[in-house]
Structure formats: C-alpha cells, structure tokens
Amino acid sequence: MNRTHNFRWIGVTLVLTGLLGVFVSTPSGAQGPTAAEIMQQAKDRWQGEDFTSTVKLTTVEPGGGTTELSIDFKAKLIEESRESEKYRYKVLARVLAPEDVEGLAVLIREQEFPTPNDIWLYLPALDSTKKIALEDFRNPLFGSEFVFEDVIGRKPGLDTHEPLREDTLNERPVWVIKSAPNDPDLAGFAYRITYVDRETLLEVRMELYNEGDELIKLYRAQEVVDLQGISTWVKATAENFETGRVTTFEFLDPVYNTGVPDDIFDPEKLGEGS
After folding, report:
1. Measuring CA to CA, how many Å separate 134 from each of 72, 187, 266?
2. How far is the first Cα of the chain from the last one, in angstroms, to the nearest whole number?
3. Does residue 26 or residue 173 have the better pLDDT?
4. Distance CA 85, CA 76 (A)
5. What is the domain-level CATH number for residue 147?
6. What is the pTM of this model?
7. I want to staple 191 with a disulfide (CB 3.0 to 4.6 A). Which of 142, 145, 180, 272 is the partner?
8. Domain that holds residue 219
C-alpha cells in the first residue's frame, strides 16, 4: 500500500461523474481513473495513524490589520475505516492564544458519505459545546478565511466532477478537475477547480467561482515537504477576492504517529482542555 500522501486541512481542504478518457496517460487499451475517482482517492488517502502540530493562523485585513492565532492541532485515524482503506479521521483544534479566545475549540469526526461529518464548537466564555448544523459547515473557522468544512475536506460525493486537462503546477504534474456542487446554495459557490498532484494526490490549488464565473476564493499549498515518508503541505493560504482578506495556515512543528490519545476526541470533554 502506498502511504506517501498528505494530512490536510484544507481541504482545502479541498475535495461524481465524467469519464477521463484521454485525460490520463495510460497504456494502450487501458482506461484511466475518472475525475470522480481521482477526487475520492485524494480524499481517502493515508494520512498517518495520528498527527499533531502547533498551528499559526494569520489573517490579514484589506486595510493591513492582522489577527494571529496559535492553535493546538491533533488528528487521529478512525479505526473502523482502516480495513476499507478509505481512511477517515477525527480532528481537534484548540486555540492557545491570544488570551481573549483561549480555549475556543473545534472537534470534527469524519463520517462516511452520505452521512454529514459531526462538528462541535466549544465556547469557553459560556463553558458550552454546541453541534454545528449542516448549513453552517462553510462558516468561518476561528474568524479566518478557512471554513469548518476545510478542516477535514469536502466530501467528493457532494459534487459532480469532470476532467478539464492535464497540466503542470510548480513543475509538478497535476490533474485539473472541475467540480459543481449538487446543492450550490449550501456550498456557497457555483463550482470549483482543483489541481491534484498526480503522484502524491495532494490538492495543491483550489479555485472557487460564483455563477458569473468570477473567482471568489483561492486556496494554495505554499509549502510541501516529505515528513516521515508522507508528502505533507505545511503552509497554505486562503484568499477571499470578495472581502480582500487573506489567511495563512502554517504547521510549525508537525509530526506523525506520536500516539495521540483517543479520549481527547470527546465532545463532552472539550471544556477540560481550556
């Protein structure tokens, strides 16, 4: 099993129909993966037994003002997804600083499609945990240009995918895939174009467009490294062309497979770490 893939936020994040045909170079007579299969493989990739890092989340406003958060970020494989090799994860992100938002936390448990992911938000000022509704998945994460859905990545089954072309980006071979949400009102965009690294399956660039074909948001992996044999982006940006805001997300000390305990991923215990 090839485990040279990335643990990602974005989903950027970043994540079902249409044949690829000549879109993929394959031996004569062979058929390459469909656009939907590529997006699913990118979503299902191996991302370690667990992952931990401090995150620096910096948002720059159009006028030059800056907000910087320090975040403790932990993720762990959901054990029941191991056998299928369609790997799913749970993630806990807790704000460490500044002091006025210290303890604010998000817990996400990835579910198999079509079940929506479980997302809980802990508010230390109220000592209260609430579950995030599906229609709020694309709300800002900690006031940044990343959204809740970006923490685990968008489910490929929420969109219809079609191949656009093969290309290169930063001297790397990529597939370029257009994805249209099955529910545009819920998604908040008309379609997205994703650049998927053909060797690592990292989604290294994603463009969101509105119905007027205007670019409204751009996600970019700014730095990718080999970390313990896993291709990992350690710095990414989200740029909002409607507001002029830019958020940079950076893993400062990332490491895989440290034995992150399972019991911290409990919504009833989110207040214990604040």
Report:
1. 25, 10, 20
2. 39
3. 173
4. 15
5. 2.50.20.10
6. 0.87
7. 180
8. 10-273
Is there a domain that residue 5 lies in?
Answer: no
pLDDT of res. 85: 87
Q: Which two tokens stand for residue 234?
A: 């350690």
Torsion of the alpha carbons at 252, 255, 259 and 262, rounded to the nearest 10: 50
Q: How wide is the angle at C-alpha 85 spanned by C-alphas 187 and 269, nearest 5°?
A: 65
| Rounded Cα distance, 75 and 262, in Å | 10
217, part of any domain: yes
Exposure string over 203-218, b if 16+ CB within 10 A, otherwise e? bbbbbbbbeeeeebbb
- 164, part of any domain: yes
Average pLDDT, integer, range 256-273: 94
Interval 240-261: pLDDT, tens: 999 999 999 999 999 999 999 9
pLDDT digit string, tens, across residues 207-235: 999 999 999 999 999 999 999 999 999 99
Residue count (the chain): 274
In a domain, 177, yes or no: yes
Q: How many domains does the chain have?
A: 1
